[in-house]
Fold this sequence. Notes:
7 strands, alpha/beta, 3-stranded antiparallel β-sheet, 19% helix
Amino acid sequence: MGLSVRVYEGAPGVGGTWWWNRYPGARVDFPGGPFCRYTFSDELFQEYDWAETQPDQAAVLAYLEHVADRFDLRRDIQLETWVTGATYDEGAQRWTIETSRGEFVSAQFLVCAVGTLSAIYKPDIQGIDDFAGECYHTARWPEKEVSFVGKRIGVIGTGSSGVQAIPEIAKTAAHLTVFQRTPHPVSGRATVRSIPQWSSKRVPTGRRSGRR
């Protein structure tokens, strides 16, 4: 199409949600393999297979990094940059985009691909900002490994992230308390680690095109 593109990413690396959500136990929370992949390129679809049907965070991030490198996308991605404002000029029919780095960029098209999980929710708990111990949020987990060995841990919430993190944290914590508002059913994870019968090379082209 002959268009120049600039992608703004707030994280220090590509991957979006899968870069930020690196908490213990993070993985795809429902069986999605081997179809949890991009289908805009038949070559990419054919060359990449998942090792299991519910890949973990590291595997998903590795796939996204592979895609970025495979199509040389990194040159058009500006990391650690947040879009702070956007104004449309009806007369010029162009957008003026402001970033957290103080840049003002003019563009014909603006695609807001922030996703539904881009904004984190911080519990409104009195005194949370004054807590003297360690405090982590699953959506902003540090890159450096966090040790829970011999510690008393409290986990607030039992959504998808909590359900995945709690069993992993419990393995090494001295004591774990879970604060849960509403109990809900959780099914066991039946990950299949070898799926040659679901190999991408065995999926008919017509079925692949239906997932584009």
